[in-house]
Please model this.
Amino acid sequence: MRAMSLPSPRPLSADEAAALNARIPAEFEDYLGPRSAGDSVVPGPLHLPAFEQDDSCIILGDLHVDGLLVNPEHTSLVVTGSLRAGTLLTLGKVLVLGDAVVAGDVYGNSFNNQVCGVRGSLTARCVLEKGHSFQVLGGLTAEAAVSLSNVISAQGPLTARLAALGGMNDEERRRVFDASLFDDAGSLSEPRIVARLRAGLPLLRAA
Model:
């Protein structure tokens, strides 16, 4: 599925900036606000088959990506509405002021430098961090939520068949994740995880 570019941005109005700043939770102020009139934004709602960022952007409204959404390192994605995606790969910063619903898997690794923050609830098949922070102010619902080196936190209910927020040993990882994700030394491989997500394949081992 071909990734598409965004429409041309426009400046944020003073009224829009005031309304947006009123919605930014205190937990996100260091990452997101305050915004000013004239900031570049792309008006939503947007519906794309796939989307791989080439620069930081603010979506003013909802963003719906049918397939893979890639947030590369050194970029930020701010969605002032809700986010829907087939799969989410984040190596940078993602902030969603509504709910986030990912049909497949969410994977984050920024070498512990960045955050995926959701003001509402986050729903996904699998949420895996291997050097990333996930901060959900609502509830988190997933088949598996696995934190390997940083943190996954939810202020609301955490509903998961498997919740391993304190890490896993090697044997546990092999029972949970697909065998193709491990290198010859038996460690989860970042390039293999990314390649599997790009191929549209699940991270979890088949039952």
